[in-house]
Amino acid sequence: MIFGALLSLSLLLVGAFAEAAIAEAQRTGGSFGGRRWSGGGRGRAPIGSSYRGTRYGGGGYYGPAPFVFFAPGGIGAGGLVTLVVIGGVVMLLARGARRATLRVPGPQSRAWDNVDLGVVQIGVDAETRRAIEETLAARRVPLRVREHGATWLREVIHELRARRDAWLAVRVDDYRPMSPPMAAGSFRRVQEDAQHGAPLAEHDGELEVVTIAVASHREIVDVQRDDADAAERVMRALAQLDPDEIVALDVRWAAPA
Questions:
Q1: How far, CA to CA in Å, does 162 sit from each of 23, 118, 150, 167, 183?
Q2: 47 falls within a domain
Q3: Which candidate in 27, 91, 197, 214 could, as Cys together with 254 as Cys, close a disulfide (CB 3.0–4.6 Å)?
Q4: Any residues with CB less than 8 A from the CB of 188 and at least 6 apart, and which?
Q5: Secondary structure percentages of the chain, helix, strand, coil, to 5
């Protein structure tokens, strides 16, 4: 009876710690656009006046967790000792996985301020939007951002810049490099607003608003103005990013009101 009770307790403890490790790894990780948001700590908010506006979704990164398999059958005193030892090892592994998942770089870490954001919004009329979409469709530009993000980004930017005379409204957000968690949060807020074309569409409901949002390990050019020239500078910088430098990107037209 005692051995049976101890065995049940050991199994429960092992299962609980393994489950906790898995849950912790799932809760604390993060990724977007096929790249992992890593690191942690404080970041810096957008600089300047933020140019009248706002900020972007993400997915989950599921880290490794210990797995233990027990064969059915009776266990004697020696087997119980072995089970307890295995349970202790699993507990240590689970705690190690949790510490690894929660590890946060300090201010001196190279991963502390290594993600910059570039955000441009452009408003055009329905005819211009239709022309851009038809051109991209004719070129058969891949739409799956996860595999072809850099190519898709360059093509969209090229088509927008080629139609600069058709721009009816422009917005540019300027950021300084920040920690990955801060960048991920800012990216998500931009995405949420981009679904409705905010803030440009709030001023003119007839505008067709496209938002280009990119998180990059390379610092993106800083601009102190919110006009077509500033948008050109930022888009040129975004088009020059290498695929490995892009942490996340989102290019979307606002959904119909």
A1: 48, 20, 18, 10, 30
A2: no
A3: 197
A4: 55, 56, 57, 58
A5: 50, 15, 35
On the question of pLDDT at 176 being above 50, the answer is yes
Whether residue 111 lies inside any domain: the answer is: no
Identify the three-state secondary structure at position 156.
Answer: helix
Same domain assignment for residues 6 and 94: yes
Mean pLDDT (whole number) for 228-237: 96
pLDDT digits 0-9 by tens, 85-126: 555 655 655 555 444 443 444 544 555 568 999 999 999 999
Same domain membership, residue 169 and residue 140: yes
- Could you tell me if residue 108 is inside a domain? no
Residues 146 and 183 in one domain: yes
pLDDT tens readout for residues 114-167: 899 999 999 999 999 999 999 988 887 655 554 567 888 999 999 999 999 999
| Lookup result for tokens 């810096």 | 44
CA distances, 147 to each of 10, 56, 63 (Å): 45, 20, 22
Kindly report the pTM of this predicted structure. 0.58
Q: Is the pLDDT of residue 213 over 70?
A: yes
